[in-house]
């Protein structure tokens, strides 16, 4: 048993896994800019809950990025592709866009330029969602078919990296704004542009994915119908043909519903913290810094446990734990701004969120064909993001409908997880067989 344990952890000495970690950081960082930072900034300037909730629509690009994912698979990002390669080239273009939009955002004022702030946030969401297509494809292509342990470790490190970008780097603006430091939110946004510059410099150093399987590029001679079929219809059709229509539809419903409760909680969490009486420094320490380290630790442990239990059991246990952890926030709503209780809540929430996310990422990766990696992963991931963006954008209206009863709101977020767990139980036998077939195939050498 100890030998197996050491074998599982030895994968974290692989340099490719740590490159995936850094790309996870790059993926999570824009969520600070248009997520927690923006929510706190708007709340402090007097924007109402419903409007702050509607700002969640700026994340809509994450839900529909599958529509342009074929471009990332088939169009070279000239002139970047020549020097950086297909995946890194697209990452560089998107990082430049993120840098410029954040710089503009730092010059705006919510009181008089709210629509311009929303427009900048929409563009940031678009560039970030496009960048995620290339990052996810790079991660999956970084490992051979027989490297199942590395693929699982890659999912864990992608999760740990994402939370490092979101929570780890998210500590910085909350620590600087308010309190003794006295920074403004505009100044904090200016600082964020410097971090995008560092990301560009890192992209120049890493190597391109060596297992990228290039699909025939688009040409001017191709008809529109043929291009549409090869770029969009064929990847979707391959997924349904491989899985079967009924099973594929059930999988899509599960992916759509699994993260709904977590999304509603996350969309209103910063507003809740500030309304209940926590300071920006409390948010920086507990919601950001503590969550960061808890998530990294349990993302790695979650990867190990999921290897032992299997992805299906990991999803089931993680989903139950994720729903239960939401009840901790209902307790805080009853007690008030108790930092010890907040610490307990973020510890439990970080653990359950990391576990369920690692299993979820590994599960979606398992379903992707190597031929249409970017398109299929983007399709499945964007479906999961659809609930997190489109539906959770109404979370502010839900809190208002409940007359500001935060405790009842968090209880509802826990109940929202249950439908997906029922679907998972109904599909458990078929999914377990699918996982076993994948593990058996993964023991064969990559030719």
Automatic annotation (TrEMBL):
GO terms for cellular component: membrane. The keyword Kinase does not apply. The chain crosses the membrane at residues 17-38, 50-68, 89-108, 114-135, 155-176, 188-204, 245-265, 285-307, 314-335, 341-365, 377-394, 406-427. The keyword Membrane applies. It is found in: Membrane. Its main location: membrane. Keywords: Membrane, Transmembrane, Transmembrane helix, Transport. It is a multi-pass membrane protein. PANTHER family: MAJOR FACILITATOR SUPERFAMILY DOMAIN-CONTAINING PROTEIN 3 (PTHR12778:SF10), SOLUTE CARRIER FAMILY 33 ACETYL-COA TRANSPORTER -RELATED (PTHR12778). This is MFS transporter. It comes from Pseudidiomarina taiwanensis.
